[in-house]
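Figure caption, in words: inputs first, then the predicted bound structure.
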Amino acid sequence: MNVDKLMIELEKKHPGEVEYLQAVREVVESIEEVYNQNPQFEAAGIIERLVEPDKIITFKVPWVDDQGQTHVNLGHRVQFNNAIGPYKGGIRFHPSVNLSSLKFLGFEQIFKNSLTTLPMGGAKGGSDFNPKGKSQQEIMRFCHSFMIQLWKNLGPDMDIPAGDIGVGGREVGYMFGMHKKLTGEHVGVFTGKGRNWGGSLIRPEATGYGAVYFAQEMLKAKGESIEGKVASVSGFGNVSWGAIKKLNHLGAKVVTISGPDGYIYDPEGISGEKIDYLLELRASNQDIAKPYSYEFPNAQFHEGKRPWEVKCDLAFPCAIQNELDENDAKNLVDNGCKVVSEGANMPCTPEAIDLLLENKVLYGPGKAANAGGVATSGLEQTQNAMKLNWPAEEVEEKLRQIMVSIHDSCANYGKESDGYINYMKGANIAGFMKVASAMLDQGVI
Ligand code: NDP
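Bound structure (NDP present):
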């Protein structure tokens, strides 16, 4: 494989798909050496087949608002690769959704799912629909319309979506309900379902918990622990909430959260009733950072800024892509930050990652560090297939073991001659080797 030649070809075929091209470049640069040591990959065209999705489904989603006005959004499902198991990956509703961002997320999902040790292929879907400010009825009508278009392409052994940004338990419920109505079957076709109808305990917390467990393993490999560390977290969505809960549980002090309007610095730590208050704000669809600073006067609100200027030992970017750039990475390094564990997908820019790696920060890339969410979705699928519900402790222990195993696979492939572990390289190679070997076994299809 010649990385530059491959990328030039891909850029010609998919001009302007910035996020997707960025994600492919990161992976192919990491795996180039092992790829070229295995001539059977080249002969079977593994990389050329892996960088293109198996199938992309694009459809219109018409819906009617509460005033009787009709709107039309676009929906997509990118079924990227099912070599090691049925397609699996979330659905995102956000105005920024386009094919490039979904192709990037679907491509990443292949390697993430491979790392979990569970049999899951990679996919991603979504719509440019903005759920913010919409009524419950509008959300329901939109979800139903989305599923009327997509249902034929889904199934418990074919493609199993889940939530993502803008898609939580409520939206999963509406989409699952329409799928059930159209097929007449109550099957495990979604994960992140309600607890009374097939959802797994711990799934809502799993991504955040997993990112913290991954950080714990990175620290353990250096003889350190989470206890007593100061942590900076961004966002206050599903992933941030889980990360904050687990960090508190393991004895860290969380001093920041953020929203699109700015960040909160709370030197006394964000825990207990403060988390309950944030959850209330979130449930009522309000901005969270500014009201928090009114309620807890020792906290400071920094309008329009990101939390990475705050001194911390551990950083957990858990909000959105490209939310931590080179300048932010420099601030973290200068302030002595030891660990960056990505709860979100691609929150660090490529320049930020280079700087963290150069400075030997323990950097957990999203495809490894936030794989706990999809891993627990895989555990939900297993429970559905067995028609069983496991208790929370059992699910959490399985999740913890999976995060340890992901860490160890990354360390195995990412250890450098000076002992530093490049987890990004390790994650890409470990994820790739399993998928590539399945593709070899199955022939050119
Ligand atoms: P949510 O929608 O629940 O939360 C996103 C949070 O980020 C919200 O608090 C949102 O604030 C905030 N936010 C949005 N834009 C910005 C910004 N520009 N600056 C600061 N904060 C911002 O999403 P999730 O927590 O589910 O997902 C977060 C990330 O984690 C995504 O990248 C997702 O792909 C990734 N991920 C999620 C998984 C899951 O299980 N949920 C699994 C693996 C990865 P507001 O609500 O005010 O817009």
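The chain has two domains: 3-185, 205-369.
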